User: What shape does this take?
Amino acid sequence: MKIPKNCPICDKEWLNTNGNLSCVNNDHVISFTFIQNTGELWGITLRFDNDKRAHFFLKRKEITISCFTTDLLTSIYIPFFEPDLSNYEALIAKIKTYMLFL
Assistant: This one.
């Protein structure tokens, strides 16, 4: 997967901070982590439902869901799939469906 020129959800320009490209908007938060020397994409993080994050570790082919509460962090793994960023709502729905069956 290649790093898009702009945010694939809203097409805004990325905020670039030391190996992270991120977009924080009212309806989505997404970040791409890459290796600065090579530009190789390492992972994608999506925030949803205010307290959950889906971490796509592309090289390891692993997806971790982190759920935050005031005093606890819980992580679960769901089966790996390539994230289709062309439809953000459908991607979040797919993640939530996997979460239901764990």
